[in-house]
Amino acid sequence: MLDSQPVATVPEFNTMQVELVRVDDAFHFEAVGTSGVVQHIDAATDIGGHNAGARPMEMLLMGLAGCSAIDVILILQKQKQVIDGFRLSVDGLRQKGATPAPFQKIHLTYTLKGALDSDRVKRAIDLSMDKYCSATAQFRPTADITYSFEIES
């Protein structure tokens, strides 16, 4: 049984809150967090969704991508590296037919553009994956996380 008490605000911790509101009579929701930015979530059409938003598991991968991207860009900026372009693709593998079906393998592909030092890019990604990215830490107990990167000139 889950505890029905909300998370208490504790001064030593950063507290996040998200509110989810059903938009239609199916599975379309609007979610808003402390940022105030509305995100749309929906289910696949084969179970009655309308494809009006990202799937919840897609949003988890988006969160991982966003978390690591912010880390990597901040680290490279501190190293005086000039980034002319940045793209991050994330592939996640889940077992078909399993319930629940957490991600078992996740691969991130970083594509950067600019006159960047490859050793510094690798170090920035390693720091994100191993030290800074909280989303990575959430996935580590169930998923094997790997990455690759390329630098376009």
From TrEMBL:
InterPro entries: KH_dom-like_a/b, OsmC/Ohr_fam, OsmC/Ohrsf
Coiled-coil zones: none
Pfam families: OsmC (PF02566)
Domain of life: Bacteria
Entry protein name: OsmC family peroxiredoxin
